[in-house]
């Protein structure tokens, strides 16, 4: 039909030629079906007859298809998951309204048969019943906001009332449920793809005519409120266009899927029948031409039947995911690699900062008070001796009654007792377990602040660094492994705990505390006085002024779940307490009520540290009491007339809920109510509601003081308590749309998408604050721009313990002006808080860096998404407000995922209704789509020690597919808007493409080989002998006194040496011992367990003389027998060694008690000690009958623990040695320094074999000796004037790190490396270019030429495929001199397709950091191929 229509039209010749070219491109696969249709429509659109318009709407044609062929099997059982997909039109985003996106809805529930009729959809009556049966529950009040809740409900109401272009999300039915197709399918008012030029109602995809709206309303009514028994198509429509609706119903009836048929395969659909119908569109709709030629597939996807209701976006995503990882052959013939993903274009109308560059804000000067102590320990000593009976801390039980009162006198004496026992009662006097400066863990429960306080100050008095952590409840707590990693990196070996906590820890059947997953082995030490020894009278802790020593380490959990330790020095600790005292106006003997966690953050700083400095009385309210009586902290404020209270916004809300049951509340004594989570913008609602309720109870407005803090910067800002009640706190109503672009725009509260924020006070005394751009260079923000707050002060953390790289990025930031000049010579610290500094120096925080999600270039905060989701009715649907929001990366962009726990009594209908409302609310308020919304049963998400959701563990479970949700709603096509573009035809094929294409198609031109050994003239007499044993005998006769090996010790002196005849005689004696004592025969395997040295070489040739097959094995480490000895045993057993030869010292080690604990020593083969050799000579030296017989076995253990062995024949060994001799120009007068492990690979060959074959002198340097003397290797190279040396990457790294600051002293000692011609790094891995370059630069001043450093390449089968030739000589065609090594950047994406693409223009960066060069792999030339005819390097790329 299309062809006949085309023939009937009179098209110009150039148009016909272009159409033929398009047909060719389509047939060859150079263009997609949609691209073909789009370009074809553009070409012939002007020549098509215009269809008549009906009621102002253009008639649009759509193909509806039905497959009569076999269909594929799909999911059928409900317990696995049933998917239903509905196509919908695009949303009117320009108007700011929230349309409903196409959705994926998965149901996971009990195993039940699928109904054959439609389920009853959600109706208003069922929703009302839902509300009546909903039981009460608590909600996460961190995000509670009445204003925001009203905004969400208003957005949903507006969404419901307006004339929508798509149906409201309703209950999805499965593709397996077979009903008439028109029962739920509305007339399609737009194509599913906007960017392919398909049909749309108007520029926003919304019908504008009344006919289109009324017709859509009819279909919406059918989809949501239709009867479950109706299976016939509806033929009743409103005025206008009724004929089209009738025709559509007829078509639907004809395309009805029978009950017995399987669902269609939406990815491989082909059509045999196509029916064209007309449907009404808006008056401004664009016109699309009918399909012609090969265009037999429908508009909404490449071959997707309308009956499957799959939109083009979904189909495009499915097709993309189904594409094979290896592209077609034609795609290799491309010179320039194109980015296939669509690039998100920035919104031209997005708001941009317009203000002037901000100025750093300085806090008030930190006052100097004469009676301030010089350190916190001195303050404790003062109050403990002057006022010993003054109360320091009062703890409460679960009934709200005082459990224990800790006075300053008791705190002082018990802390001294703990300090004495830590230093003197752990370990022995000669080897104490804990010394000053060591780290110890503090493991105390949240209901025992007194024991924690005593232990903490005991550590300070002992000058030990405390590391407070949470109590591990089980061996597999969420995040427990990361805590263990922190303890291990801090070197913690002792954990202080209380008696009750120690009894509550999990125990093994023997009663011992097991080692927690990822934790180091700990000694648990109970700090109760009854378990401690009393210190002597003459013992007194050393109390000194605050200095830069580490006071304590506070742990911090990052966004990815890793745990870091923030170090706080003693001077920072004291200065922070002084700043808090000045800002809060603390005085002696004040009472403070603390509801917060006393082990970290604000609870630690106020309730444990600053309180002792000012001799305050702390009333500690445990979390267990708050759960029983949320009003307990207010009761204690009234009871003790407390001046200060430290709470969170959730505590304020809980008090609001429970205050009706309490009378006679008087809060007039409070002068400061510190809100610890004031940095959370959603805390303002709780503050306002608390003030409104308790203002009549004596609470004043100026008392509420939010503060902002972070583990790195400690207290960032805090609102000061004032006496002026007429001065309102600062607050701002900001546009969320502007915040997503990092811009401050004041909005009105009537708007739905606004964020109301309150100030967190002024900058801390003695600090300087500024805001810098979160990404890139730390440049100062503008006054109307959101940035990351940075602080410069003494009272901050100093580093992440043991992580210098991350420390530099966080603790050593130098903010810059727009001109690039730093604003201060002192470094600033990133706080991790996003905000700005408002008028009057007030600090405002709008979010955190850890909660930041950048979606399509816009910033969204996880807390904002949580607040919107929790504000959706019914607000009590989420169980206890437990909801997690995070982002996952899909197609190089972040996508939002929401995981929530649903109430136990929730039904499937309730869940879907709530999830649909959440999507609509987030879309309306935040203008962002949700990738996945998953509901899990109550109490199934991983928890933090304090009961919150462990976000990183939840995300990991989601990525692993181990979340096990009961309801899932996915909308990938609303979020994944950067789908791959169709490939365009390349204008021409370049020579590089031809070469790569030939490789892929099977033409093996990527082949290289070394020179043939048989064609090389060599006058060496050793070539006449086929076996190494014969070569050694020949050298012992011709050059008996020539030194072959020289072994150096750690002092650089000669420990041992071997001449040719000495090696020959020792080998003979070992052969006699093997035959007489070992009773071995030809071909028996012998394990050689020797340290690097001469004995290993002699034992190897002794085995060859006796006809045995040697296997070199690394001996076990004396300090780590339990780990290293099993490897020795495994190699001995796998190699089937009949005997084991070693030294006397190692022989004793193999039979020691430690060895017996690791392996069964009774199963060792006979062990021969070679320290006492016989004096006989063998009657006959073994000569192999065949060159292909086995010479030795080469065993090695990979980094993954896999044991691999390689058989080496005599012929291969001799050829290998000869190729190395010719490649490296080795001859008897040469000296070569070797610093390698001699147990496998090329290291063994260079250490044991090459000197005997080539006759050169090998200077052997065991790598273990460099641990004592890092300069040993380089000093030996300089002393012996060595021209060639071999080493490993570990040796090079040890020299680089250990000698980095000693180059001048080495130069003064006469170290000269100018004679080095070749320094080859031996490894079986990709060259470590950064390390080799650093080594060359570091020792360049000592004469090392950069061209001298080179690499080798080998593998387990071919031990030396490439050896770098000497590059400091004259360049010759066949000689061994060569140019500089070639450094190439290879495209990683091309490597995934087994193709190589060099990145030109980047080679200049090879000596610099590769920052900014993405998707590149840096490769370095590893030299020419070794000269073995049987070894060839082939680049094999399978097509």
What's the SSE blueprint?
Blueprint: H1 2-8, H2 13-28, H3 33-44, E1 60-65, E2 82-85, E3 104-107, H4 124-133, H5 146-161, H6 210-225, H7 242-254, E4 274-279, H8 312-322, E5 361-362, H9 376-386, E6 391-396, E7 402-407, H10 408-424, E8 439-443, H11 449-461, E9 465-469, H12 480-489, E10 494-497, H13 499-504, E11 523-526, E12 550-557, E13 563-569, H14 570-584, E14 591-594, H15 601-613, E15 617-620, H16 623-628, H17 632-640, E16 644-647, H18 649-658, E17 672-675, H19 683-694, E18 704-710, E19 714-718, E20 731-735, H20 736-740, E21 754-758, E22 762-763, E23 768-772, E24 787-792, E25 799-800, H21 804-811, E26 829-837, E27 843-848, E28 852-855, E29 858-861, H22 862-870, E30 878-890, E31 893-902, H23 908-926, E32 932-936, H24 951-960, E33 967-970, H25 972-975, H26 991-1000, E34 1007-1009, H27 1028-1038, E35 1043-1048, E36 1054-1059, H28 1060-1076, E37 1085-1089, H29 1094-1106, E38 1109-1113, H30 1121-1134, E39 1139-1142, H31 1144-1150, H32 1153-1158, E40 1167-1169, E41 1190-1197, E42 1203-1209, H33 1210-1224, E43 1231-1235, H34 1241-1254, E44 1257-1260, H35 1272-1279, E45 1284-1287, ...
Parallel strand pairs: 6-15, 8-9, 8-10, 10-11, 14-15, 14-16, 16-17, 17-18, 31-32, 35-44, 37-38, 37-39, 39-40, 43-44, 43-45, 45-46, 46-47
Antiparallel strand pairs: 1-4, 2-3, 3-33, 5-23, 6-7, 12-13, 13-25, 18-19, 19-22, 20-21, 23-24, 24-26, 26-27, 28-29, 30-31, 32-33, 34-52, 35-36, 41-42, 47-48, 48-51, 49-50
Helix pairs in contact: 2-3, 5-23, 9-10, 10-11, 14-15, 18-19, 27-28, 28-29, 33-34, 36-38
